UniProtKB/TrEMBL annotation:
<feature type="active site">
    <location>
        <position position="319"/>
    </location>
</feature>
<keyword id="KW-0963">Cytoplasm</keyword>
<keyword id="KW-0486">Methionine biosynthesis</keyword>
<dbReference type="InterPro" id="IPR000073">
    <property type="entry name" value="AB_hydrolase_1"/>
</dbReference>
<dbReference type="InterPro" id="IPR008220">
    <property type="entry name" value="HAT_MetX-like"/>
</dbReference>
<dbReference type="InterPro" id="IPR029058">
    <property type="entry name" value="AB_hydrolase_fold"/>
</dbReference>
<dbReference type="GO" id="GO:0004414">
    <property type="term" value="F:homoserine O-acetyltransferase activity"/>
</dbReference>
<feature type="binding site">
    <location>
        <position position="320"/>
    </location>
    <ligand>
        <name>substrate</name>
    </ligand>
</feature>
<comment type="pathway">
    <text>Amino-acid biosynthesis; L-methionine biosynthesis via de novo pathway; O-acetyl-L-homoserine from L-homoserine: step 1/1.</text>
</comment>
<dbReference type="Pfam" id="PF00561">
    <property type="entry name" value="Abhydrolase_1"/>
</dbReference>
<keyword id="KW-0028">Amino-acid biosynthesis</keyword>
<protein>
    <recommendedName>
        <fullName>Homoserine O-acetyltransferase</fullName>
        <ecNumber>2.3.1.31</ecNumber>
    </recommendedName>
</protein>
<comment type="function">
    <text>Transfers an acetyl group from acetyl-CoA to L-homoserine, forming acetyl-L-homoserine.</text>
</comment>
<dbReference type="GO" id="GO:0009092">
    <property type="term" value="P:homoserine metabolic process"/>
</dbReference>
<comment type="subunit">
    <text>Homodimer.</text>
</comment>
<dbReference type="GO" id="GO:0005737">
    <property type="term" value="C:cytoplasm"/>
</dbReference>
<dbReference type="GO" id="GO:0009086">
    <property type="term" value="P:methionine biosynthetic process"/>
</dbReference>
Length: 351
């Protein structure tokens, strides 16, 4: 079974903003056992509202008899810095004030998150990662990490994500934060500040995570008599209520801002120059109905990274297809691995 741990870092972490975090902790999950030379490590980066327990949201990939069987692999996933599943975040106690951070928690970027992940990696004695995999926000972090530590990452599986966040994606996130700001409780220094706004934010987000086809298939009314109380309406309310039971508005705000700031070219000249630092053999994966991270973003990355592979998942579930279409994703990764075993094609001139 997966095991759960907490990594404590006692020194200050310098952030990209210029601020410092006075120490932090990362909750992380492991599954399986590292082999003698640590060559069987799979590291997973989760999406915006995910946790370190990857078996809960990518169970089709990890487990006995699955693509990543713990009998063969040592799998690690850490709850992101700023998260609310055991890692240091806005509800944590600030050691300098002995009070919860709340609104005073410093803004994070994916580079800050990756720096914390890398400290955990060193703590675990992992010198090489066989495969680094992440989707959505986790895909952004995985790409950033593979550029930050190119000598560590042997393979990268980058799923439904991008090299820089788009104006379209930033607009979606800002609209969600507008909903949180409209909640009068958001200004209060309490653990449940902004929770009503968070419910609306999540409902807005669902429109970017899903697709017309999935709503039509699952929420369309079967008859023609209704004039109110539609399935689609109650579904939106349900999604907001569901998230509010396991998340907080501070972390949602913080991580959506981290997503917005994602740009691997920042401080490196350009996206193209940054991608030249990649040493990992890379698979870029897109979802054909993804509205939030459209396929052209993954195709553009594939075109710029020499020797990379590309796979397209077919789904009616939009961006969430990267979580739903686990069988397709597992098959794509398996094919990616198998391509390494194929001998290079050579042409012999016939005489």
């Amino acid at each position: 079974m997966p095991e759960h741990f907490v990594f404590h870092y006692q020194q200050a972490l310098q952030l990209e903003s210029g601020e410092q975090l006075p120490g932090f902790q990362l909750a992380y999950t492991t599954y399986g056992t590292p082999n003698q030379d640590n060559s069987n490590v799979i590291w997973v980066c989760h999406a915006l509202t995910g946790s370190s327990d990857f078996t809960e949201w990518w169970g089709g990939l990890f487990g006995e008899g699955k693509l990543f069987d713990p009998e063969n692999w040592f799998i690690v996933c850490a709850n992101t810095l700023g998260g609310c599943y055991g890692s240091t975040g806005p509800l944590s106690i600030n050691p300098n004030t002995l009070k919860p951070y709340f609104h005073t928690f410093p803004q994070l970027t994916n580079r800050d998150v990756v720096a914390a992940f890398d400290l955990l990696r060193v703590h675990l004695g992992i010198g090489q990662i066989h495969t680094l995999i992440g989707g959505s926000l986790g895909g952004q972090q995985a790409l950033e990490w593979a550029i930050y530590r190119p000598e560590v990452m042997q393979r990268l599986v980058h799923v439904a994500s991008n090299a820089r966040h788009s104006a379209w994606g930033i607009a979606f996130n800002e609209t969600q934060r507008m909903a949180i700001r409209q909640d009068p409780s958001w200004e209060l220094p309490t653990a449940d500040a902004g929770m009503q706004g968070l419910k609306t934010a999540r409902a807005i987000a669902m429109l970017s995570y899903r697709h017309y086809k999935s709503y039509d298939a699952t929420q369309q009314e079967p008859g023609c008599d209704k004039t109110d109380n539609y399935n689609a309406s109650s579904y939106q309310v349900y999604q907001g209520e569901k998230l509010s039971g396991r998340f907080n508005a501070y972390t949602y705000w913080l991580l959506s801002k981290a997503m917005d700031s994602h740009h691997i070219g920042r401080g490196r000249g350009s996206v193209a120059i940054a991608l030249q630092k990649l040493k990992a053999r890379t698979l870029f994966v897109g979802v054909d109905t993804d509205l939030l991270f459209p396929v052209q973003e993954q195709r553009a990355l594939h075109e710029q990274v020499s020797g990379s592979a590309f796979s397209l998942l077919h789904s009616d579930y939009g961006h969430d297809g990267f979580l739903v279409e686990e069988a397709q994703l597992a098959a794509a990764i398996q094919k990616f691995y198998e391509q390494e075993l194929k001998p290079a094609f050579t042409y012999e001139r016939q005489v």
